[in-house]
C-alpha cells in the first residue's frame, strides 16, 4: 500500500469491505468460487496494485445460472413489499458502509472521494426509491366490451437479469438496476467492468450480508468477473430475458445484436457527446460553473460529461475568456485530496486516446486554446494524470463527432438564432445529455420542444453532467434508447400480462363473433 493509500485509510477500508489480496471472482450470494485467470486491479491514483480477482470460467457461469434460475422460482412469489423490505435493509447496509465503499470507488476508479461518496449516496437513494415503488407496481384496469367481464393488466417478474457495467460508475449502475429488478421479483447476475472488479466484490459482500440475515437462498444476487468474453455468455443465454448493458456504443452494438438474435430484451446505456448551448441571454457565471464542472469533473469520464460548448458569436469571446481563465485555476492531482479538482484517467490506454484526440483536432484544423499534456513526476507516477484541454473546433470534425472519454472540451460557434444551435447540438450520432444556458423563455422552450434537443436528458440553466435518480435516465440514438433509475423505468424489469375474467354464465366472444355449438 502506498503512503497516499495508507494516509487515506485504504487498508482499513479494504478490510471492512472483505477484500483480500486474492479474491474469488464468482459468487451466488454467500458462496464464492472461481477457476479463471487472475485479473489485477491497479489504482490509477498511484499506480499500485490493490488486489487480484480470479475471473469466472464458463463452468463457474453455469453454476451461477443454475443458482439464479432456481432462486427465481421462490423470489418471484415473495410479495413485492417484502422484497422492498430486503432492498430497504440493503440501503441501510450501504449507509453503514458508505465511507469505505466511497473510498474504494475513489481509489480503484480514480474519481474524487466526494464523488465516490456521492456514488454510494446514489445507491442509497435508489434503494429508498425502490422501497416505495415496491408497493406501487401498478397495472391498469380496463372496461371490457363483454358483459360481466373484468379486464386488467398486471406486471410479473421477468427472471434472471444480466447486468454489464462500465468502469466509470463502478457501483451505482449496478444498484440502479438491482434495486428495481429485486423489488420487481427478478434475480440478478452482474458482470462489473474488468477495470474495477474490486468494487464488484465489495458490493456483493454487502448484499450477501442482507441475504444471509434474511435466510434468503443463494442466487438472488450473483457476481461474475472477467472481460467481454464472460459478458457475451449473458448476451447469448436464453435463460436471461433482459441484459442491461452500460458502456461504449461499440460494446452496445454487439450486445444489442446478440441479445436480439435470440429475441431477448436489452436495456442499453451507452456513450454520449453532450453539449451546452450558450445563448446571448445566458448567465455567464452559471455557464462557466456548469461547463467547467461538466467538462473536467471525473476527469471527463462521465457519460454525461460536457464535450461541446455551442456559443453564440455575440458572447463567444467573453465566454471563451472566462472558461480559459477558470481552467487556469484547476488543480490536478490525487483525487483523494479534496483540494484537487481533477484526478487521473482510468489507465494509460485512456491517456493514449486522449493524446490522439488532441492531435486529431489540430490535424482537422482546430485550434488549441488550453494546452493538454500528460503530467509526470512526484504524485503523477501512475502515468494517468492529464491536463484538461480546450480546443476551438467545428461540429463536423470526425473527432468532435466521437466520444473521447477524457477532459477535452470543444468550443463551437453559432451565429443565427437558437434553431441553428439546436441543429448543431443534435448533429452528432449520440443523444444522451444536453443543456441550454439562457434566461430567454422562448429559447428555453424551443430547446425543450419536439423540434428541440433530441437527447434523453435536456436541461435548462444546468450543465449536462449528473442526474437525479428520480427521473428516468438514458439517451437516444447511439446512446442506446434505454431508461433506468427513476420514473417508470421499473417496467422494463417486468413482463406485462393482460387478464380478462368472465364472471357470467355464458361465453360471449370479443368483437361480437358468434360461435354457437
Ligand atoms: P466498455 O464498453 O469498454 O465496457 C463496458 C462493459 O462492457 C465492461 O464490463 C466490458 O467488459 C463489457 N463488454 C465489452 N464488450 C462486451 C461484449 N461484447 N459483450 C458483453 N459485455 C461486453 O466501456 P467502459 O470503457 O467501461 O465505459 C465507458 C463508456 O461507458 C463510455 O462510452 C460511457 O459514455 C459509457 N457509459 C454510459 C453510461 C450511460 O448511462 N449512458 C453510463 C456510464 C458509462
From TrEMBL:
The protein's name: aldehyde dehydrogenase (NAD(+))
Gene Ontology molecular functions: aldehyde dehydrogenase (NAD+) activity
Aldehyde dehydrogenase domain segment(s): 37-498
Documented EC number(s): 1.2.1.3
Keyword DNA repair carried by entry: no
Similarity field: Belongs to the aldehyde dehydrogenase family.
Known partners and oligomeric status: Homotetramer.
Active site: 269
Source species of the chain: Flavobacterium stagni
PROSITE patterns hit by this protein: ALDEHYDE_DEHYDR_GLU (PS00687)
Keyword NAD part of the UniProt annotation: yes
Domain of life of the source: Bacteria
Keywords of this entry: NAD, Oxidoreductase
Broad EC category: oxidoreductase
Amino acid at each position: 500500500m502506498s503512503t497516499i493509500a495508507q494516509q487515506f485509510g485504504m487498508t482499513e477500508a479494504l478490510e471492512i469491505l472483505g477484500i483480500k489480496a486474492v479474491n474469488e471472482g464468482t459468487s451466488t450470494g454467500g458462496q464464492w468460487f472461481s477457476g479463471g485467470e487472475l485479473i489485477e486491479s491497479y489504482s490509477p491514483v498511484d499506480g499500485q496494485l490493490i488486489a487480484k480477482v480470479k475471473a469466472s470460467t464458463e463452468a463457474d457461469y453455469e453454476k451461477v445460472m443454475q443458482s439464479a434460475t432456481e432462486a427465481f422460482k421462490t423470489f418471484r412469489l415473495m410479495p413485492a413489499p417484502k422484497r422492498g423490505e430486503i432492498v430497504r435493509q440493503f440501503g441501510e447496509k450501504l449507509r453503514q458502509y458508505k465511507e469505505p465503499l466511497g473510498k474504494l470507488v475513489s481509489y480503484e476508479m480514480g474519481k474524487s472521494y466526494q464523488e465516490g461518496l456521492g456514488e454510494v449516496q446514489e445507491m442509497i437513494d435508489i434503494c429508498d426509491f425502490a422501497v416505495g415503488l415496491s408497493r406501487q407496481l401498478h397495472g391498469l384496469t380496463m372496461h371490457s366490451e363483454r358483459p360481466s367481464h373484468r379486464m386488467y393488466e398486471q406486471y410479473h417478474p421477468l427472471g434472471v437479469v444480466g447486468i454489464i457495467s462500465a468502469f466509470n460508475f463502478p457501483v451505482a449502475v449496478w444498484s440502479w438496476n438491482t434495486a428495481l429488478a429485486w423489488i420487481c421479483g427478478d434475480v440478478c447476475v452482474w458482470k462489473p467492468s474488468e477495470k474495477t472488479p474490486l468494487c464488484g466484490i465489495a458490493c456483493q459482500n454487502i448484499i450477501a450480508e442482507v441475504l444471509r440475515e434474511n435466510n434468503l437462498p443463494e442466487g438472488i444476487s450473483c457476481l461474475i468477473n472477467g472481460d467481454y468474453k464472460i459478458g457475451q455468455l449473458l448476451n447469448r443465454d436464453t435463460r436471461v430475458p433482459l441484459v442491461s448493458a452500460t458502456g461504449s456504443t461499440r460494446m452496445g452494438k454487439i450486445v444489442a445484436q446478440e441479445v436480439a438474435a435470440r429475441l431477448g430484451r436489452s436495456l442499453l446505456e451507452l456513450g454520449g457527446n453532450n453539449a451546452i448551448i450558450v445563448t446571448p441571454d445566458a448567465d455567464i457565471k452559471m455557464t462557466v460553473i456548469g461547463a467547467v464542472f461538466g467538462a473536467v469533473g471525473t476527469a471527463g469520464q462521465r457519460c454525461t460529461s460536457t464535450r461541446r460548448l455551442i456559443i453564440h458569436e455575440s458572447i463567444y469571446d467573453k465566454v471563451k475568456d472566462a472558461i480559459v481563465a477558470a481552467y487556469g485555476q484547476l488543480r490536478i492531482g490525487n483525487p483523494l485530496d479534496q483540494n484537487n479538482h481533477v484526478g487521473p484517467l482510468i489507465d494509460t490506454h485512456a491517456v493514449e486516446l486522449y493524446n490522439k484526440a488532441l492531435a486529431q483536432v489540430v490535424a482537422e484544423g482546430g485550434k488549441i486554446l488550453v494546452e493538454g499534456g500528460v503530467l509526470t513526476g512526484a504524485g503523477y507516477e501512475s502515468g494517468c494524470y492529464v491536463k484538461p484541454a480546450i480546443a476551438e473546433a467545428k461540429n463536423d470534425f470526425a473527432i468532435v463527432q466521437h466520444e473521447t472519454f477524457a477532459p477535452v472540451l470543444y468550443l463551437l460557434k453559432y451565429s443565427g438564432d437558437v434553431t441553428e444551435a439546436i441543429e448543431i447540438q443534435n448533429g452528432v450520432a449520440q443523444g444522451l445529455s444536453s443543456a441550454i444556458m439562457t434566461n430567454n423563455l422562448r429559447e428555453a422552450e424551443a430547446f425543450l420542444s419536439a423540434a428541440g434537443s433530441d437527447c434523453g436528458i435536456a436541461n435548462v440553466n444546468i450543465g449536462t453532467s449528473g442526474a437525479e435518480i428520480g427521473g428516468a435516465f438514458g439517451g437516444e440514438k447511439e446512446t442506446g434508447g434505454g431508461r433506468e433509475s427513476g420514473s417508470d423505468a421499473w417496467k422494463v424489469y417486468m413482463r406485462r400480462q393482460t387478464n380478462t375474467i368472465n364472471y357470467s354464465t355464458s361465453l360471449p366472444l370479443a368483437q361480437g363473433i358468434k360461435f354457437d355449438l
